[in-house]
Amino acid sequence: MDVYDLFSKFELDLLPRDWVKSLWEDDFSEAVDLPAEYEMFLENTDISELMSTASSFIREWLETADNTFSAANRKSSSLNRSSVNTSTVDSKSWQNLISNNVQHKALVALLSIFIVRGKTEKQFEVKCLGLIATDFYLMLLAIPGSQVFHIFNPILYSHAVENLKICSVLSRTSGSSKPAPKKRRGKHHDDDDYDEEEESDDEGDLLPSDRSKVVKLLNIVLTDLLFTLRRFQLKGQDDSLLITIQILILITRLEHSSASLFSKSPPQNSPSYLAYKAYKILIDLGCPEHGDVENTVMFIMREMMSGFLIFDQKGLKLTPKEAVVIKDHSVSFVRNLLTYLKDPAFKGVYTLIQHIIVKIPDKADLRTKGVQVVIELLDVLPYSLYSHTVVWIMSLCHSEHVKHRITGLEIVTKLLYGNERNLDSPLKPFHPLKKTAKKIKGSEEDDEDEDDGGAILTQQPDFSTTKFLLGTIFSRFKDVSSTVKAKALAILANLVSSNNKNMRHEMESIF
């Protein structure tokens, strides 16, 4: 069977031209009824099996072209290499397919029906068929020329990618906490709203066989999405890039029980593997073919921010332990992103840390959690970005907002009790904390543990940067806010009474 036999099996001649034309003119915005004649064809055809076979065939077809291209380039001389490249590309492209009467518009119109139905309808089988159609559509995009011949449509692509939201049923059935539906009070209420809530709740109750089917389908779609994105460019399609990032980050939330996601690959038949693969695709999106890398990283960091805000989990159906695991994964991902992309990722990560700090609430216990997240992020930054970020944190201690000055002081204090960074410091691996970090003596929430303060200073940092950090604390002794002033004085008292010899020497050299 060749590719033309494959497309002929869809009997696209049964789709009227006017019907196809109307869908294209409406940009596939909604699902319409299939023509009666085509419905009769579907009654005798396993369309899901046909689309799955077509997806696998096209992938092998394109991979064969890649292998032929590589082999020909190795054997050919530099004089005739360009002709080999041209013939290889032209033979397996939309230009060649359309010139051989493949009805691309009818095929895309047909897929749009299954894709949009999968997104909008609630029946499990319809949603699965939508995923299969999504996978087939992604493989069509991987064929060279998909943008030139308008196989790619931003609206249809958005519908297709949103079919991956079915991953949320895996999260609901994997033991994560889910609050009970709120009962409405008052005499007047809409019965239809009640029905919708009950139906949405029922969607989460998957049989084990259905759950396995969803995992398998999502695994296939993510594999083919990665395959497609390495051949198809999203450059200039910011909306499509953003919806792709949003859905991938939603999938990363499927793993919230094990912190070892990046240290070893999870089993392929598990939701954890879907999260692992989604993180991999997110890193792959950070290449120039999909647009400005700095902007892409900014998109990713913005959408990932909720994973770092363990001090603000309102509206998220996560236990505190699950929130910490997702935070650990997010920190590890940032480290991997910095290792892979280097400088182009700096601006996005820098902005992420700024936003996290600004969002830390003015409440002692929540502030402690937020400061710890910031310290963990600082630990995985390369020195140049680390230094730049620390300077901004020191400037935060002079903010006009009291809560920001207190947050800045607590971060500076944590840095004083950590290991000093310098230009030769390697990018640190991130190891999730197994226990909550000890509280620093002298803080408002830990005044009674004064005897343990010096024990935290296991290794004193180099004093070139320490002097600037200390200067930041000293500058708050005359703060107009009594709270900030008390915080700075408490930190100083803690440092002066420290049992660490290096810190004591530093204090003696100052005073």
From TrEMBL:
GO annotation, biological process: meiotic chromosome condensation; mitotic chromosome condensation
Cited InterPro entries: ARM-type_fold, CND1/NCAPD3
Acidic residues composition bias: residue spans: 192-205, 444-453
Coiled coil: none
Origin superkingdom: Eukaryota
One GO cellular component, as annotated: condensed chromosome, centromeric region
Region (Disordered), start-end ranges: 172-207, 438-458
Record-level Gene Ontology MF annotations: histone binding
The name this protein goes by in its record: Condensin complex subunit 1 C-terminal domain-containing protein
